Amino acid sequence: MKTVLVLNGPNLNLLGTREPAVYGSETLADVERICAEAAQSLGLRAECRQTNYEGQLIDWIHEAGRACAQGELIGVVLNAGALTHTSIALHDAIKGAAVPVIEYHISNVHAREAFRHHSWISPVARGVMAGFGVAGYGLAVSALAGMVSGK
């Protein structure tokens, strides 16, 4: 069974308690459940990971590129958190690994502070989704599966 990798970056381990007016009351465990259910409905398996470290995300993206090339992985749903707006290294990792990525944000970053309006990930992502809350992770998994399969 092929896998979709869901990567969450800095501070997403605080979901449910961090700024609930912005991010909602759902937790990272809820995100993982939503992703697992969406993947299962598509005949896939979801593997979810979270880290507060940029280098760890880069290593996982490199790993994902290899798994994708071997036909084990369809791609990545990536919520890089604030690293979206600062990390050229994540941009380069995605580009270099040649892995299909959906950039996802729980909140509508374009309705927030100006520094959140620029993404270093968007130019190398297959798609960008924002503002659907935690439930949007399931949409991102479905969108990735559709893009990769051509449906």
TrEMBL record:
UniProt enzyme class: lyase
SUPFAM superfamilies according to UniProt: Type II 3-dehydroquinate dehydratase
InterPro entries: DHquinase_II, DHquinase_II_CS, DHquinase_II_sf
EC number: 4.2.1.10
Residues holding substrate: 79, 85, 92, 106-107, 116
Pathway terms, separated by semicolons: Metabolic intermediate biosynthesis; chorismate biosynthesis; chorismate from D-erythrose 4-phosphate and phosphoenolpyruvate: step 3/7
Residues flagged as site, Transition state stabilizer: 18
GO molecular function, one term: 3-dehydroquinate dehydratase activity
PROSITE patterns reported in the protein's UniProt record: DEHYDROQUINASE_II
Keyword entries, A-Z: Amino-acid biosynthesis, Aromatic amino acid biosynthesis, Lyase
Record field: catalytic activity: 3-dehydroquinate = 3-dehydroshikimate + H2O
Pfam families assigned: DHquinase_II
Subunit text: Homododecamer.
Homology family: Belongs to the type-II 3-dehydroquinase family.
HAMAP family: AroQ
Purpose: Catalyzes a trans-dehydration via an enolate intermediate.
Listed name of the protein: 3-dehydroquinate dehydratase
